[in-house]
Amino acid sequence: MPMKNTTIPSAPARGPADHEVRDQIVAAATEHFSRYGYDKTTVSDLAKAIGFSKAYIYKFFESKQAIGEMICGNCLHEIESEVRAAVADTDLPPEKLRRMFKVFTDASLRLFFRDRKLYDIAASAATENWQAVQAYEARVQKLLQEVLQEGRQSGDFERKTPLDETATAIYLVLRPYLNPLLLQYNRDTTDVAPAQLSSLVLRSLSP
Amino acid sequence: MPMKNTTIPSAPARGPADHEVRDQIVAAATEHFSRYGYDKTTVSDLAKAIGFSKAYIYKFFESKQAIGEMICGNCLHEIESEVRAAVADTDLPPEKLRRMFKVFTDASLRLFFRDRKLYDIAASAATENWQAVQAYEARVQKLLQEVLQEGRQSGDFERKTPLDETATAIYLVLRPYLNPLLLQYNRDTTDVAPAQLSSLVLRSLSP
User: What UniProt keywords are attached to this protein's entry (chains A, B) (predicted)?
Assistant: First the structure.
């Protein structure tokens, strides 16, 4: 179907687009929270720091938690991207599984505890089971299922146990290394645990 | 060898034996901590509640932590006894392993979170890695090794993987359900996790 030769009306004179303001608020909030902590910062503090009015911030986010959710979501996406890249980088399902354990642990440790002091937000998110966390956990479980499915097709993994059962159990083994609340108390085992646990899991999957 | 017919000298007039006083202090402290919390109670509070002088308590325990260690030790021994009884009650190594997962989880949940509000003490113990906790963890690992060894001898479990490696990995799987700090964040999974995880572990052990 041929495109009509229409004239695109120029946008009316206005400020930055909504998504730009949202990004600006999130960037400033990330900076502010990582310096002063999420729990201790109010929307008023944030407004003052950015130079916006509190009311203006509330036009874009209904609460501090909504800003936190966005930051948390970004952080979880970053972890997930690293894992997906590592998993995509090999064709062997057993190696994919090993990398899931290793990279989830390393990236979670780095993002939750070192790089940005975002632990406060991650902890609130996990404690209150924010939507961003639920979505993340669902995506991780789906990725795990895909890797298991691939390994069943390639003949690397056994097929007797229902896929759901296998996936749920392995997720329970992995969870203490990607949930920030659990990870904080597992930090003394993170150098060896991913390798030992993925070896155990691979033994459980042998055909 | 015939016993000599000696006259046992009567004990000099004195108060209750040391171990009786210690038990009395521990019993009163358990009661007091479970009502007011371990963190919030000082040795002075405790002395007042028992009706002893603070100095008298310090004759028997060098610190509040020393009393807490004794209470914590009792609690961990109780959990361990339940597990050992359940394990001893079957001859089948796979069933022993299942029971370890189930009974450690149930008994820890009950003792740390319900019966006595001893969570405060258990949490301090785990955070500060008290001697009572270290000893407990070592005993749990030893019990696990014994069950694995039995299963290897009976032919139920594979023998290719070094015993140490198997035991360490399984302990890592079990740990989130017996460490009180981890268990508090696993409470939404404790109804199904022990069965699912022990099934996974048993698959990993199949010869």
Answer: DNA-binding, Transcription, Transcription regulation
